[in-house]
Amino acid sequence: MITPILPTYNRVDLVFERGEGAWLFTKDGQRYLDFTAGIAVNVLGHAHPHLVAALTEQAGKLWHLSNIFRIEGGERLAARLVEATFADTMFFTNSGAEALECAIKMARKYHSVSGHPERYRIVTFEGAFHGRTLATIAAGGNPKYLEGFGPAMPGFDQVPFGDLEAVKAAIGPETGAILIEPVQGEGGVRTAPWAFLRALRQLCDEKGLLLILDEVQCGVGRTGKFFAHEWAGITPDIMAVAKGIGGGFPVGACLATEEAAKGMTAGTHGSTYGGNPLAMSVANAVLDVVLADGFLDGVLAASTRLRQRLAELKDRHPAVIAEVRGEGLLIGLRTVVPNTDLIAAMREEHMLAPAASENVVRLLPPLTIGEAEIDAAFDRLDAACTKLEQGLKADAVKGAAA
Ligand SMILES: *Cc1c(COP(=O)(O)O)cnc(C)c1O
Prior knowledge:
Layout: E1 16-20, E2 23-26, E3 31-34, H1 37-40, H2 49-59, H3 72-84, E4 89-93, H4 96-113, E5 121-125, H5 134-140, H6 143-146, E6 156-159, H7 164-170, E7 175-180, E8 183-184, E9 190-191, H8 194-207, E10 210-214, E11 238-241, E12 252-256, H9 277-290, H10 295-316, E13 321-327, E14 330-335, H11 339-348, E15 351-352, E16 355-356, E17 360-363, H12 371-401
Parallel strand pairs: 3-15, 5-6, 5-7, 7-10, 10-11
Antiparallel strand pairs: 1-2, 2-3, 4-12, 8-9, 11-12, 13-14, 14-17, 16-17
Helix pairs in contact: 2-9, 3-9, 10-12, 11-12
This protein binds pyridoxal-5'-phosphate (PLP).
GO molecular function, one term: N2-acetyl-L-ornithine:2-oxoglutarate 5-aminotransferase activity
Subunit structure: Homodimer.
EC number: 2.6.1.11
């Protein structure tokens, strides 16, 4: 019999009642170290006092207003993001996929109002993940996510990640934009070489294309810069943001330059909930912390410490861990054993982390992670790897005996 909730997830059989920082607590008081962070969402951990205060204060005043009225919190958030990024303007959404939908529509509209409605195609990359709407599954191109949902939305040309010649070959008279994650999250924590991002920027400038970045997972401090593209020293024309910007409240945004946004005039796009006062109060509170002096230095320091310990872990357990990759606190452990085996063994040690493609376990701690928690993570990972190795040895003995 079908469950009351549509069974589209294979859920872990754990029920959490509350969270605090990097920890989650079950009803019976068991404590888990949370390196999932809602998939890179809870950038300030669970129940951060500043976010709780912002949310509860706003909840007593005003939750929701239609976008047919001015929303002060949104005006403030947008002004702060304009100040802190390449963007001149933005549209607020409730999710990453909606931010990407806005980005795709904006790119098409830009060329349409520039006299080139035929330039609607977008070059995308293998291993990409842009969301689960019809347009974003077409952009992501993952056959597993497209299967059975009818013809894929036209307009996306996918090439291998990092392959500049393939990008050039894919560009034709109908191409209008290039869409890429600076660091692929779901795709296995794969960093686009910064030189490749710079080459894409140059190519876009030469050919009159828009560069669209999907920083839904790698943005908002996750890599140790406010946005990951800053490492490459480039700026996009359009950028999709979500996950971390709301710290756990559903918020997304599509940021753009004035030029790229020139077709998005009154009536061309909309959202009932996007940018409502409750969401804006929390996102502003996230920025209070993430943009404060020294916060990103703290992310880099935590990253350095965690990665040192992970290098040690890899040396101790070469039969389990093949590679440590990623940027900042967007880290991937490529495993020798199936990644799901390590995730299950970690869970037995009360540590939680999500999988990614290429047999990778993602480590996505809150950006506020401290030294004690990093050491706790090492101990739990070390115990999980040790158990897996004992299992591998036992299997080898059985194999030799047979
Ligand atoms: C999670 C994610 C999305 C989709 O965000 P939703 O909020 O689930 O719609 C898009 N792009 C990237 C890179 C993501 O990690």
